[in-house]
């Protein structure tokens, strides 16, 4: 694809929604071949370095987007996740906020029903503003959920109440001795 200098002739539904929300597209970031690696080190463009420590990886597959945000090139960048942590891991490795929204919250790309589209940023406020701007289904979506009661950015000022964290101290099943 690099040698062919391919450019899509049209925007995706999400790309159109980004433009409607007045996002500016600056370019394409690095990603592993087919987005199928846990590090962003494609042969075509070379490895993406973590701006916090150039000896470290940005993880994958949204590693290029996270590197661009962490380096201060852009305040927010597109990211997606098929289920292996492609939003959450690069965001965590680069010290960013990544959101993997529920299926149906943001339209999924028509070529893969399992990819969840979202963004990464340095602030929770910026990440929360994106679903407010681009949420909703489109023709062909398999997952339909009702819109939220109020904007996500409004939720940021709310006190969450009492939070509980559960911890499993003993497995409810027998564990083989070699696994301990």
Counting helices, strands and paired strands, the structural category is alpha+beta
- Give the termini separation: 47 Å
CATH topology: Amidase signature (AS) enzymes
Spans with pLDDT under 50 lasting ≥5 residues?
none
Strand proportion, as a percent range, falls in: 5-15%
User: What percent of the residues sit in helical stretches (DSSP H or I)?
Assistant: 10-25%
Which radius of gyration do the C-alpha atoms yield? 18 Å
C-alpha geometry: globular
Order of helices and strands: HEEHEHEEHH
The CATH class is Alpha Beta
Q: Mean pLDDT, nearest integer?
A: 86
CATH architecture: Alpha-Beta Complex
The CATH superfamily name is: Amidase signature (AS) domain
Number of distinct helices: 5
Largest beta-sheet characterization: 3 strands, antiparallel
Strand runs, count: 5
**Spatial ordering of strands, largest sheet:** 3-5-4
How many discrete structural domains? 1
Question: What attributes characterize this protein structure?
Answer:
180 residues, alpha+beta, Amidase signature (AS) enzymes, three-stranded antiparallel beta sheet, two-stranded antiparallel ribbon, 5 helices, 5 strands, 21% helix, globular
Architecture overview:
The protein is an alpha+beta fold. The chain has one domain: Amidase signature (AS) enzymes, CATH 3.90.1300. The chain has helices at 13-20, 63-70, 88-93, 124-134, 152-155; strands spanning 49-50, 53-57, 76-81, 97-98, 116-121. Strands 3-5-4 form a 3-stranded antiparallel sheet, with helices on both faces. It has a two-stranded antiparallel sheet with strand order 1-2. The radius of gyration is 18 Å and the shape is globular. The N and C termini lie far apart (47 Å). The mean pLDDT is 86.
